[in-house]
Amino acid sequence: xxxxxxxxxxxxxxxxxxxxxxxxxxxxxxxxxxxxxxxxxxxxxxxxxxxxxxxxxxxxxxxxxxxxxxxxxxxxxxxxxxxxxxxxxxxxxxxxxxxxxxxxxxxxxxxxxxxxxxxxxxxxxxxxxxxxxxxxxxxxxxxxxxxxxxxxxxxxxxxxxxxxxxxxxxxxxxxxxxxxxxxxxxxxxxxxxxxxxxxxxxxxxxxxxxxxxxxxxxxxxxxxxxxxxxxxxxxxxxxxxxxxxxxxxxxxxxxxxxxxxxxxxxxxxxxxxx
Amino acid sequence: xxxxxxxxxxxxxxxxxxxxxxxxxxxxxxxxxxxxxxxxxxxxxxxxxxxxxxxxxxxxxxxxxxxxxxxxxxxxxxxxxxxxxxxxxxxxxxxxxxxxxxxxxxxxxxxxxxxxxxxxxxxxxxxxxxxxxxxxxxxxxxxxxxxxxxxxxxxxxxxxxxxxxxxxxxxxxxxxxxxxxxxxxxxxxxxxxxxxxxxxxxxxxxxxxxxxxxxxxxxxxxxxxxxxxxxxxxxxxxxxxxxxxxxxxxxxxxxxxxxxxxxxxxxxxxxxxxxxxxxxxxxxxxxxxxxxxxxxxxxxxxxxxxxxxxxxxxxxxxxxxxxxxxxxxxxxxxxxxxxxxxxxxxxxxxxxxxxxxxxxxxxxx
Lengths: 274, 365
What we know:
The complex is a heterodimer. In chain A, 38% of the residues lie in helices and 23% in strands. By secondary structure, chain A is of the alpha/beta class. Chain A has a domain at 240-274. In chain A, the strands form 2 sheets. A 6-stranded mixed sheet of chain A has the order 6-7-8-3-9-10, sandwiched between helices. A 4-stranded antiparallel sheet of chain A has the order 2-1-4-5, with helices on one face. Chain A is globular. By secondary structure, chain B is of the alpha+beta class. Chain B has 2 domains: 2-40 and 232-363, no CATH class; 59-215, no CATH class. In chain B, 55% of the residues lie in helices and 19% in strands. Chain B has helices at 2-7, 10-47, 69-76, 133-139, 165-168, 175-181, 203-213, 225-228, 230-264, 266-274, 279-314, 328-355, 358-363; strands at 52-56, 67-68, 81-94, 98-105, 116-120, 128-132, 146-149, 152-161, 171-174, 187-188, 190-195, 217-221. In chain B, strands 1, 3, 4, 5, 6, 7, 8, 9, 11 and 12 form a 10-stranded mixed sheet that branches. Chain B has a two-stranded antiparallel ribbon with strand order 2-10. The longest helix of chain B has 38 residues, at 10-47. Chain B is elongated. The A-B interface holds A 52, 55, 57-58, 79-84, 88, 90, 94, 96-99, 103, 107-108, 110-111, 155, 159 and B 1, 4-5, 7-8, 267-268, 271-279, 281, 358-359, 362.
C-alpha cells in the first residue's frame, strides 16, 4: 500500500508551551502517501501536539512541517489548508448536536463553494461509505458512540483531504465500536488510498495500523512497521465482533457451523497473547 | 443551522425575543400614537378648508396659543388671503369629572361648513352647545338635554359629525360665547387662513409672507400643522427618549444572549474553525443568529405595538382620538430598529467568536 511519495515530513520539530513545557523536542517524521500509521505514547509524550501541528491547529516553536510539498509556515491561508488538505477526527467526535448526521458531514463543504444540492448529495454518499445511509437524518444524540464517530469520519473526508488525522478516535468507545472505527479507517486506506495517521495510547489500536511511531518525552523513541500482515489481520480479528465474543468465552454460532470447536482453546490462547 | 442554534435554548431565546418585542412595541406604539395625534390635528385644521393655520409663536402647548383678533384683521389684509376664521380651543371640564375639547368658532364662517349637523341644529349664540357624535354617545346626551361645561349648564342644540376624532369627541360653541366662558375676550387660539385659488401654487410663499408681516406668530400649512405643534414635538422627544432606553435594554439583552450562546458553543466554534471555516463565516453565523433573533422580536413587537394602540382605541374614553392606520413607515422603522439591535447586540459576541483560536476552543471545557 505504501509507496515512496512523501506526503508529510517534519524536520527538527520543537514545540515549547508558555509554561516552558517542551512537548516536542526535535521530531523528524516522514509519512508516505497512502500510509496507515499510528503515533503512540503515554500521556504527555507529545503525540497530540504533533497531530495539532500537522493539522495547522498550532504553530511549532522551531523546525519545519511539509505537507504535500508545501511548508506549513509559508501557507498564508491556513483555513483553506484545514478545509482541503487535512481531515480531522476528534476523540469526542465533536458533532454539532443541532444538525443531522448529513448536515454535520456537509459542514466542511461550505468552504468549497458547491451548490446545496451537490453538498447534500456528497454528504449522503459519504454516509453510505461509512455504513450510515439510514441515519442521515438522525441527530447526533440519537446515534450510538460508534455511529457518531463514523459520521465524524465521513465529515473528515468530505473535502477529499490528502491526510486524515485522528486524535484518539476510539478513546471513548467500547472495544466493538472501536474495532468498527478502525475497520472504517482501514477501508478508507485500502480502497481510497487515504493516508491515515492515528494518535492513540492504546497498543492494540496501534497494532491494527501498518506502522507505529512511539513518542517518549517529545522525541521519537521507536518507528517501526507493525510486521507480518498475518499478525495484523489476527489483531483486527481480535478487535472485531466475532473476536470479542470468543474472548468473552462464548462460542459463536459460526464456529459450530464450521465444526471448529476443537480449535477454540488454541485460538483463544493466541488472541489472548497478542 | 442559524434557526436551530437559536432554538436550542428555547426559554432563553423566547425571553430575549419577548424583551426585544416589548422594546419595539413601545417604539411602534409611540410612533403610531404620535402620528395619529398629529394626523388628527392636521385633519382638524385642514377640515376647515383653510390651507394655512396660524398660531402664537414660542408657546409650550397648543392650548396656550393666544392670538389677538388684530392678527385676524392683519391676516385678512394680505392680498393672497380669501378669508380668515378664528378658533378658540380649550380642554374643558365636563360634568366636573371628564374633560373634552371645546371648540369656539365663528358660526358664520366658512370653517363652520366642516361641521355636519346630523341631529338637531347649530347652537344659538347664548347658552347652547352642539356635541360631536362620540361625545354625545359617551355622555349620553341628545338635542334638548343639558350638559355642564366649565361650571356652566348649556343646552345641547344638536349633534355634528366631522370624521375627525378630536372634533367628534368634543363640542362646539359660538366663538364669542367661548371667549366669555374662558375669559378670553377678543382672543383666539388659531386662525384658519384660506388662500385665494390663484395663489394655491404659492402656499409656501404665502406662509412666509404671513410670518414676515405679523410678528410673534407661527404659520404652517394646515396639512402639516400637527407635526409642528409643540405638543407633538414634545411628545415625539419623550417618545424618542423612552424608545432609546427600551432599545438600549434590548440591545444589551441581545448581546447577553448571544455572548452566552457563543461561550456555550466554544468547542463547536473551535470544531468549525478546525474543519476550515473562515473567521468571516463564523462571524456571519453569529450575526445571522442575532439578526434573526431581533427580526422575530421586531415582528412580534410590531404586532404588539399595533395591538396596544388598538386597545387604547377600543376604550370608550379615547375611542377615535387615535386613528390606527397600517402605517408602513412605523413598521419599517420598527423592523429596521430591530435589525439594528441585532447588529449592535450581535457584533461583539460575533467578534468574540471570530477571535477564538481553533485549538484553544477545542480544549474549552
